[in-house]
Write a structure and sequence with these properties.
single chain, 169 residues, mainly alpha, globular
């Protein structure tokens, strides 16, 4: 439970600081790897950390696609290639440095980092889609302030708690 409190504190602190970074910055990939290593040091399971990595990858990909469209840059397969590029920039270095692929770092016979990233990505994407659907049914307005943020982050928080108990040793 102590590790969950530390993780929650770090997560909240993350939203209090404004960061400026380049999306394709190699330092960002190194920082993601360091974050995963730091979370391991704190005893946070890779599945839980990877849920948030998956959500972050979906968010950054969507933001990039929106930015490209605003700049009137649009080509066939742009969305797919954007998602592919971001996932490759994170998962390939994790694989080549040994974070992904260790035979003892598995849950349900799937690598914990890949499992968490997949589930976190799907849930984050689904919650964004669901938010848009709810907003559309409400005359283009959110049902409550910050609903767009609360829905996906709340889902990841709930999933983190679920996986905390699943992976608890």
């Amino acid at each position: 439970m102590k590790h969950l409190k530390i993780f929650s504190g770090l997560l909240v602190a993350n939203f209090l600081v404004v960061y400026s970074a380049s999306a394709f910055c190699p330092v960002c990939v190194v920082a993601a790897g360091a974050g995963l290593g730091f979370s391991r040091w704190l005893g946070i399971d890779d599945t839980i950390t990877s849920l948030w990595i998956g959500g972050l990858l979906v968010a950054i990909s969507a933001w990039t696609i929106d930015w490209l469209k605003k700049k009137k840059i649009n080509f066939k397969g742009m969305s797919f290639l954007t998602y592919l590029a971001y996932y490759a920039m994170v998962l390939i270095p994790f694989y080549t440095t040994g974070f992904i692929g260790h035979p003892f770092n598995r849950l349900w016979n799937i690598d914990k980092i890949l499992l968490g990233t997949m589930i976190g990505s799907m849930v984050f994407y689904f919650m964004g889609f669901w938010y848009q659907s709810l907003k559309k049914k409400n005359n283009g307005r959110a049902h409550f302030p910050f609903q767009k943020v609360v829905m996906p982050l709340g889902a990841l928080l709930v999933l983190s708690l679920v996986f905390y108990f699943i992976t608890k040793k």
